Amino acid sequence: MYLKSSFLSRDSRKIGITVLVYGVLLILFIYPILHLVTAAFTRDGAFSCGNMLEIVGNESNLRALKNSLVLGIAVTAIAVPLALVFSWLVVRTDLHARRFFRTALVVPFFIPPFIMAFAWTRLLGNAGYVNVFLQNLFQLDSPLFSIYGAGGVILVSVIYTYPYSFIVLSRSIENMGAHLEEAALISGAGKGRVLRDIVLPVLLPSVASSAMIVFVTTISMFGIPALLGTPGRFIVVTTRIYGYIGGFRDPNGIGIATGLSLLLLVIAGMAQSVQALMTRFDRYSTITGKSAPMEPVRLGPFRLPLTILVALFVLMVVFGPLAAILVTSLTRALGLPLSPENMTLAHYRTLAGMGLVQRSFRNSLGLAVIVPSLITLAAVLLVYLRRNKRVYGHQFIDHIVSLPYAVPGIVIGVAMILSWIHPVLGVSIYNTIWILALAYIVRFMIFPMRTIDASWKQIDSSLEEAARISGRKNFGVLRDISMPLLRSGISSGWLLAFMPALTELTLSILLYSPGNETIGVTAFNVMEEGLVPVAGAYAMAIVMIVLILQMLHGRFFEMNRMNKNRKKRNYG
Amino acid sequence: MKNVIAIVMILLAISPVFAGGSKEESSNGISGTITLYTSETLTDVQSYVDQFELLNPGTKVEIFRLGTTELTARLMTELQAGETPADVIWFADMALFEQFAQDGRLLKIQPAEAANIPESFVYFDGMAYELRLIYQIIAYNTNLVTEKIDSWFDLTDERYKGKVGSASPFVSGATVTQVASVINDDRLGWDFYKKLAANNPVVSGGNGGIARGIASGEYAIGLTIDFMARAQQEQGSPVGYCYQKEGAVYVPTPAGVMAATDNPELSTAFINYLMSVPGQLQLQANGYMPVNKNVALPKGVPSAADIPVLETDWKNLAENRESILNEYAKIFGID
Fold first, then answer.
1. Is residue A417 within 8 Å of residue A510, measured between CB atoms?
2. pTM above the 0.95 mark?
């Protein structure tokens, strides 16, 4: 809706914006990735395909590649449908205690993966509470379950990743206008038909984007496969990469490791293309500003059984590990029987007395607030520019910002060291807290980009057009129409970046410096000292802080939603 | 929006601000700041550094502490890029120290206290020094193991099938040393590993995880480092350990000064302190076996002369590291 006379200035502005956007992306994202590509194709200081040939010529690497793919597909195929069912139940039905479940189901996402893997060994390991209980019950000689191996890795990975998908999908379902469903129901379609033909297609962008994130998270994850996979002889690509960088002491180790991570990048790129294809042809806008909230679906006779099923899941998957960590943190020493005289609060006192712990909390909280805020703002601008075709090559932006998430943290750590150890453009950030901030920006940018993009796709452009026709300028449209409707996308994007940033381990471990320790690094070091009960107390402290923040965030979000509804009515 | 800006400003204000180096000089003329890269446990290192800084006002030792694997990854990447902040390095990877010594990356130093430690603990003609002795031993959970444990072959006992833990040589430098020692011994050799693999052990992570797993009962028995087993014992966990009768694995943990350091005096003084009586007493208090002949052993710890030790074939390891580790990985199915 622009007048012809403004075309010229708009073109030159578009060039300016493009240069600016790609300049920033070049320094932050492409420059470190280029270091990886260079390292992968260099041997003895010269160009070489030696690393790549060695990768494909090594049976162990190929087996690991196959295992990674199987793991990624299996976890995605379980986690996303699980999240979809949960989201629908807690958002659209009259399930009992659904507000409580909605918060509780997200909790596994807050527990750092390496603490989660440890908690699960305390539950399902050889000497885990569950195995010991069952062994005593049935008088068995050996444990019933083994958490080690492919099964255990898939189980714990699903538990770690389904909340990503749950957060995104529950917000999407909430934002879905009810008019489509109402229309279908009035036309005589059954509930199943509505679900298949209306609800699922409309949710497709969110399903596809969260499936992509779950898949990529799974194949680039190190902590869980290392702790649970390796002992069960289930080796994946990230385990191999870790070996090449640290343990194998291969003279070409870094080159081969970066080569392997390029393979992960290619796989992630393919997953992204599949996602793009799935959502290309249809329009998914459902927020047209013309609908009222819908009555919850009545579950009828299934209400109680379904509530019990969800409650059991929450009990086992959410409270089980938390209880295991809590008990560990209260035991005087590992391996003592659970009896009153072996219980103590001493580990919490030890923890409170450690200056390092306080410093880590301060550093991580600072990083986890600043970074998500910056990247959420950047994501809104980028998606806005892209949506309005204000930048050339807009289709590449998404690919560029998702690249670093597909690579294991330790490899991004290596790339960041190679990129930033020397001053760049006269600025030296190595050995300061800013290299961590930069690494987190690069790593977690994908989250707000995804959620904001997905929720923007749901907003019908007629709303924005209407505002333009009524004389609003671009920024006015963004501020008054798009932003309020995007609140849930912005809010979940911020949260999705905040949580992993708070307890990030694999990047931080290579990039922290004395004085700039983070929560993840300190938890890891406390665990390494063999002070497991103290590490348990530390994990409990992290979980408590995160839960409080989550609640505050929820309050904030509720408030915004009320504002939004008011605005909706004004325009509706 | 104003609130967000205010929050960001506050957070910026509390995030660490870097103070410049202190101008104060200590009585013996050393001053400034150095960075220590180590895989020693953090609270232990902190206790040495605290005491050193107290004895030498105006000095500061920054601690960068990580597991050996991650530490090596960072150090090697930094060196590949051309520089490292590390002045002093101290971790259990003899092979890497040897490579550094050959490449001239380590400084030859002569701390005065070196006169009080046995010559065998001076490495590469003074480029690195041993500061305390640790061994890889067999530890067990006293609730799950009632039999007398004293031999490597207790690990292959069918009673413990599926309940044996061992650190992975791809994570633990000590386990690499173990492999180079076991295959060098006629009584053990690759045959021992084949028998061990048949007992379906859990081969994973570092020695700390194995010690924790033994304490919790996750493993009934396993290979770990002696001081880690002692630490679990002291916390009150049901852990016992033995030095194997065929020989424990002596795990060298060299400390040295990087040739590129800009403060060789302070770096050398720090290593000298660790070898001196006050430093060694601190090490001893943390449960380690001291090397300085003027310092007694911790309570309940046998002297080095009474501990049988397997001979490590360092030359074989240096030349065939990859094939040795591959063979190990194949036997245990972790390739």
1. yes
2. no
Cβ-based neighbour number of residue A487 at 10 Å: 18
pLDDT digits (tens, 9 = 90+) for A211-266: 988 999 899 888 888 878 877 788 899 988 888 887 666 778 888 998 998 999 88
Contact B171 A366 (CB under 8 A): no
What mean pLDDT do residues A300-318 have?
92
Q: How many CA atoms lie within 13 A of A350 on its CB side?
A: 17
Contact B8 A528 (CB under 8 A): no
Nearest 5°: phi and psi at B248?
Answer: -85, 170
Cα separation, A534 vs A545, whole angstroms: 17
Task: Name the closest residue on chain B to residue A373, using Cα atoms.
Answer: B4
- Determine the Cα–Cα distance for residues B83 and B100; give it in Å rounded to an integer: 14
Two tokens, residue B242: 């033995």
| Cβ atoms of B111 and B268 closer than 8 Å | yes
| Chain A residues lying within 8 Å of B95, measured CB to CB | 249
Contact B67 A528 (CB under 8 A): yes
CB-closest option in B4, B18, B231 to A530: B231
Q: What is the dihedral of CA B112, B118, B122, B123, to 10 degrees?
A: 180
Whether residue A145 lies within 8 A of chain B, CB to CB, comes out as no
Q: Which of A529, A538, A559 to mutate to test the interface with B (most CBs of B within 10 A)?
A: A529
Alpha helices in A125-199 (DSSP H): 129-138, 150-175, 179-186, 191-194
Size of interface A-B (CB pairs under 8 A): 176
Contact B294, B277 (CB under 8 A): yes
Which is nearest to A486 in space by CA: A337, A384, A347, A370?
A384
- Whole-angstrom Cα distance, residue B169 to residue B175? 5
Which run of H or of E encompasses A497? helix A483-503
User: What is the spatial distance between Cα A243 and Cα A261, in angstroms, rounded to a whole number?
Assistant: 13
pLDDT at position B41 is: 84
Residue type (1 letter), B260:
A
Number of neighbours of residue B162 by Cβ within 10 angstroms: 15
For residue B226, how many C-alpha atoms fall within 13 Å in the half-sphere facing its CB?
23
Q: What digits encode the pLDDT tens for the residues A530-544?
A: 777 888 888 888 888
Question: Is ipTM over 0.90?
Answer: no
A355-360 long-range contacts (CB < 8 A, ≥24 apart) are A356/A517, A356/A522, A356/B42, A357/A522, A357/A538, A359/A515, A359/A517, A359/B16, A360/A517, A360/A518, A360/A519, A360/A521, A360/A522
Q: Which of A81, A89, A87 is nearest to A307 (CA)?
A: A89
How many residues are given for chain A? 572
Q: Is A134 on the interface with B (CB under 8 A)?
A: no
Contact A230 B35 (CB under 8 A): no
**CA–CA gap between residue A150 and residue B301 (Å, rounded):** 42
More confident residue, A568 or A337: A337
Helix extents (H) in A98-149: 98-104, 113-124, 129-138
CB within 8 Å of B280: residues ≥ 6 apart: B132, B274, B290, B291, B292, B294, B295
DSSP B124-162: GGGTEEE-EE-EEEEEEETTT--S---SGGGGG-GGGTT
Residue A429: C-alpha distances to residues A417, B116, B141 (Å)? 10, 43, 47
Please write the tens of the pLDDT for every residue from A375-396. Answer: 999 999 888 888 777 888 777 8
User: Over chain A, what is the mean pLDDT?
Assistant: 83
Taking CB atoms and an 8 Å cutoff, what residues of chain A touch B4? 373
Q: What pLDDT score was predicted for residue B6?
A: 53
Q: Which of A62, A126, A238, A422 to mutate to test the interface with B (most CBs of B within 10 A)?
A: A126
DSSP state of B309: B
Task: Provide, as residue numbers in chain B, all residues whose Cβ is less than 8 Å from the Cβ of A365.
Answer: 11
Name which of A41, A29, A35 is nearest A422 in CA terms.
A35
- Higher per-residue pLDDT: B135 or A44: B135
